[in-house]
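Teaching assistant here, posting this on the class forum so everyone can see the example we discussed in section. The complex has two components, and the goal was to see what a joint structure prediction looks like when all of them are supplied at once.
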Amino acid sequence: MNYQEGQNHSFLEATARERANLLVDEGSFTELLGPQDRMTSPHLPALGEAVSFDDGVVTGVGRIGTRPVFLISQEGRFIGGAVGEVHGAKMAGIFRLALEAYEAAAKAHPDNLDLYRPAVVISFETGGVRLHEANAGLLAHAEVMDLIQDTKGKLPVISLIGSKVGCFGGMGFVAAATDAIIMSPQGRLGLTGPEVIEQEMGKEEFDASDKSLISRTTGGKHKYIMRDCNILVEDKVADFRRALCELLAQPYEKVCACRRIGSYELVKEQMDLVALAAELNPGDAKDVWRYYGNEHPEQLPELETAEFLRVVHRRPKEVR
Amino acid sequence: MQETQQRQWDTLRQDTARRLAAAEEAVGAGKLVKAKDTVKLLEAVIHPGDKINLEGNNQKQADFLAERLCRVNPEKIHGLHLVQSAIALDSHTKLFEKGIAEKIDFSYSGAQAGKLAQAVQEGKVKLGDIHTYLELFGRYFIDLIPRVALVAAYQADKDGNLYTGSNTEDTPVVVEATKFKQGIVIAQVNEVVDRLPRVDIPGDWVDFVIQSPRPFYLEPLFTRDPALITDAQVLRAMMAIKGIYAEYGVQTVNHGIGFDTAAIELLLPTYGEQLGLKGKICTSFALNPHPTLIPAIESGWVKNIHCFGGELGMEEYVKARPDVFFVGPDGTPRSNRTYAQIAGHYAVDLFIGGTLQIDEDGNSSTATATRIAGFGGAPNMGCDPHGRRHASQAWLKCGAESGTAEAALGGMPRGKRLVVQLQETFREKMAPGFVERLDAWELKEKAGLALPPVMIYGDDLTHIVTEEGIAYLHKCRSLEERRAAIRAVAGYTAVGLKANPKETRELRASGIVKTPQDLGIDPAKANRSLLAAKNVRDLVKWSGGLYQPPGKFKNW
């Protein structure tokens, strides 16, 4: 696909490989362990399942300006982007490369490191652990979480969520642990997926066939109001790229300020939120939106992104 | 002479009067019956062995009455013979499990198809016949006349007049067949009002009205989310538009349900426009109000649409486009399945749809060995109506191209309906779309059917469109040639692998098979970016906010 043309495409509809190529500067993306290497799942054939030559994730490195950007881009079309052994190992490998690149950059450019500081970007599209190889998948989650901790103070890790499957399961935790989250209204972020909630708790608790309810509970607009998402953009590749570039142009400390967890104050903020939720006992996300000063919460889902951003009241940083 | 004087000519009327008297004793006088008295009413007016029509099809359902019928005492009421369009609800199959009903004549099943097949095999259900809608409606007036009909409407007034509105569907035919043969009509309504927007069913054809505790169930069966349309479907849609619609100048159309036809609808304002086809194809439809048709309507492609039923969420849009849809003097839409089926049978030049399996001779079926899914209305559209006498460009051209007409009719000219199947060579889970033997044969054995349930017979099928190409089957001069044309477009299925490359080349040379390249279509350029709407939200935008998608489809 033509790079310029691709920028105008829907991020939601873009494949993992298209996203990887289009998010960094034109022509700068090099795929590592790509399909030609045929690193496939050792577990799926034993279960009679088809494999994918990239195991459902595109990994590699590209450039944004002067900075190396290490990319992980998950492909929902293969087993819903679920994380198996190889998929997870490829993710971990990218983090290790990024950390090595950081050490090299810190040595070579001690005075203007921000210009050369590497970044890790994860374009999520996953339901979490691949059940066919759940142990390996879970271990991979733990390994990636561990590596995210290793990046702290060194390089930013940025999440992009706007693909069809959304970001659920253990990968929801992983996204929460990154430094900043960019979403589109179509993006969805959560832990337990809607179908699983319905299956476990019943249709009265959560009707998974109600797409609007799913969007109100896990979608980008709600996550933006709740500050689980830092930047909300239109569903367009160019808009995700622009937000990413602008974020990377900020000093590293500014990016770190986007975090939702990782300090005593942030944990207290989250705990206060939990207490507030228990007190309010909202029946629907709309109740929460109203609580934060949105007079006509039922209209928020209908608004175009720009208009939404203009009128919306987000939760204050001070929970109460 | 003697005999004539003794015979009574109104025994049905007398029987009805006795039943109505029993009803008055059970629930009191008057047409309006309380919901809590429904079971008592049903036990008073229904007798064992009655033919009962429980209204419902693939759209609206008299679900409250069906559920209450399950609660009658099986010792009092049993052995009922259901004669109705659909067996679609849990309560329908429950009637057999409880022994309240024992036999069914129907048209469509859907969600209950698996349970029905199982119940038939276990001997719990005596299966009458599986019909198309029109032939079942016909039999309501000949040998399957309902004694009691349980129907659904939006509103009633206290005199029993009914407003069925955009979901009028089967109600007129069911009520007329029942009431004019002295039967009893009971309606569940969403609300009782002082004044109806208009009268769709006159009150003196309705015996009882019950306000249901909840609105009748309505399945948005004809809504397809454009976000789920694949590039392969876009390719087949482009091939159909260029290789069939444009080729024959098809103006009058029925679209089967599915993503393939949704893709065609969404390509009209883009690809169709590029080909300069606006006004030349697809001007009139017998079709449910498909949300995916909104962009074509809004960009001026469509003159008129007559609907089989209503589609949830499309009410306001349809209402606001009275030039296109059929809307009553009160300003609200009405559908009528009988008329739409007649229109679909006689008045359209092309039927196009999808199927599960096509065999080597071109017969196609949606049956699987473990599901009795029925036919619905498709066979009445997916056939060449032999009673048709009016001519049109597309019908004449297709008839003139027929490879077998001369052998059958000599030199007498006759037109032919275009009957098109859009087929993916491999469907979901790699199930082949072309098979050597239809699963319908196995179902015939298992369910003890008289015939394998074939949706569209090979001799009616004129075109197959796959990603490999279009087979113009009606041009074939023999069954052997038709088989070769089917093989040529059947890809890597067991059927397709039998294709002989030399034979396929000859078929291409004679225009019986056309590949995308033959049609001047580059498969690499067939992708979703051509769709006029890429998701449900785009459809809402096209409609200026008039389309209000149900929760199942509103993902924002």
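For the discussion questions: The mean pLDDT of chain B is 96. The interface with chain A takes residues 227, 528-529, 534, 551-556 of chain B (CB under 8 Å). Think about how each of these relates to the inputs above.
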